[in-house]
Amino acid sequence: MNAFNNIEKKDLDKLFKCLHAINLNIKKGGTIISNLSNTDTICIIIDGSASVIRIDYNGNKSLIDTLHKDDIFESKMFNLNNSELSIIANEETNVIIIEYGKFINRCKKNCPYHNQFIDNTLSIILNKLNDNYERIQILTKKTTREKLREYFTIISNKRGSKRFRIPLSYSDLANYLSVDRSAMMREIKYLKEDNLIEVENRIITIKY
Amino acid sequence: MNAFNNIEKKDLDKLFKCLHAINLNIKKGGTIISNLSNTDTICIIIDGSASVIRIDYNGNKSLIDTLHKDDIFESKMFNLNNSELSIIANEETNVIIIEYGKFINRCKKNCPYHNQFIDNTLSIILNKLNDNYERIQILTKKTTREKLREYFTIISNKRGSKRFRIPLSYSDLANYLSVDRSAMMREIKYLKEDNLIEVENRIITIKY
DNA sequence: AACATTTTGTTGCAAATGCAACAACAAATA
DNA sequence: TATTTGTTGTTGCATTTGCAACAAAATGTT
């Protein structure tokens, strides 16, 4: 799913004009958006990836989210009172920037492609919300074992198979689950010993 | 903020007709929506409150979210593959049910109130997304102490004061932070002893 | 007012977890 | 190809945490 799904090529140009969309190419490490408090903008990742970073009043940085191809960022999503937000490109990244007002206020003509665009955007945002609920579902589990099992069943259900490849490195998975990596590796070992899963590299098989 | 903000009373009836909106009054314990897999619906809580409950393949129930007045529920938010979802009224609750298709496909007339309604809805959803990011920000902290401090600073920033009343009982707070209640009480005691906070019932003062 | 129910405060103890530290690989880069 | 950088696997140990269990307050209900 992407924000321009089901919009014909010939209409895209019209849409971009209507939205006053700005194309940006940002090199690795470059800042896509900073200091969001003032501007209400939508940012669509065309390709590449970026990190959403929060800088609190003490100057501590924390990674809030990672944006990938087709992802949408909107300032209201991260309304982190009293702290600054930056979006930094993790690699060469192309984005489209749109002012929120231009996005939401359709012109009088009621162009079908603008409606389609809003429809797509809403879908992507609802999907993001779903991802968050999934993560909360995992993070609220008390033990590392429960977190792993919840994560594995979610992936397994998505793929429709008890055998699947996890889409993260084990280091990244530990971060996602918010547990110590070494403790997580230990727990995976125990899950294997208890014959609940099988592991070959990043391919997991659930045995129950 | 509520989904019908800035829509005039006289337009509301037209909007409801246009949306084919259904009003429901559900008594305490009653089911608002169940078995969501098939229907793509939007549910707006007019007053009362409700619990979003997930029932997994083993029949285990877990509370996913609590809906309050003005909250919006959309099935795509909880696209929990392979498990059922129910929304149960926690008290007498009035809701409005709208089919997603009717919501997103504006009629040819491009009625301003329909646009306003979509605008409002998107705002509420973005706000929900923000709430989720806040909770994830808290849940990814490793220790109970860090979770508490993160929670306190978020509330403090929202209220614009170092002294504030927490909007939850301590039992509910423990649930929200996903920590053991007794362990949390112990940690609050330590925070007091270390002179980092002051506590009078549910009023907290941050001392740094 | 009497009763039941929920919330709060506290503690000992066992279990789970983070941390530090290191070695073996694998992958990316010069 | 050599070298640097990142990932995986493992362990001992101190700390944190969940759990169980109980009493005291507070709150809600008849």
What global shape of chain A is seen? globular
Q: pLDDT below 50 for ≥5 consecutive residues: which ranges of chain A?
A: none
Oligomer: homodimer
Considering residues with a beta carbon less than 8 A from a beta carbon on another chain, report the largest interface and each chain's count: A-B, 44 and 44 residues
Q: Termini of chain A, distance in Å?
A: 32 Å
Any idea what the CATH superfamily of the largest domain in chain A is called? Jelly Rolls
Query: Rg of chain A to the nearest angstrom?
Result: 20 Å
| DSSP summary, beta strand count of chain A | 11
- State which percent range the strand residues of chain A make up: 25-35%
CATH architecture of the largest domain in chain A: Sandwich
Please, how many domains of chain A? 2
User: Level of helix content of chain A?
Assistant: 25-40%
Q: Can you put this structure into words, describing what you see?
A:
The structure is a homodimer of 208-residue chains. With 208 residues, chain A is of the alpha+beta class. The first copy, chain A, has helices spanning 9-19, 100-104, 112-139, 144-159, 170-177, 181-193; strands at 22-26, 31-34, 41-47, 50-55, 61-67, 72-74, 84-89, 93-99, 163-165, 197-200, 203-206. Chain A folds into 2 domains: 9-137, Sandwich (Jelly Rolls); 142-206, Arc Repressor Mutant, subunit A (Orthogonal Bundle). The first copy, chain A, starts with 8 loop residues before the first helix and ends with a strand. The radius of gyration of chain A is 20 Å and the shape is globular. In chain A, a hairpin with a 5-residue loop joins strand 4 and strand 5. The longest helix of chain A is centred in the middle third of the chain and has 28 residues, at 112-139. Chain A has a 4-stranded antiparallel sheet. Helices cover 39% and strands 27% of the residues of chain A. Chain A contains 6 helices and 11 strands. Chain A binds chain B through residues 54, 62, 64-65, 74, 76-83, 104-106, 108, 110, 115, 118-119, 122-123, 125-130, 132-137, 139-142, 154, 157-158, 178, 180, and chain B through 54, 62, 64-65, 74, 76-83, 104-106, 108, 110, 115, 118-119, 122-123, 125-130, 132-137, 139-142, 154, 157-158, 178, 180. The structure holds a DNA duplex (30 and 30 nucleotides).
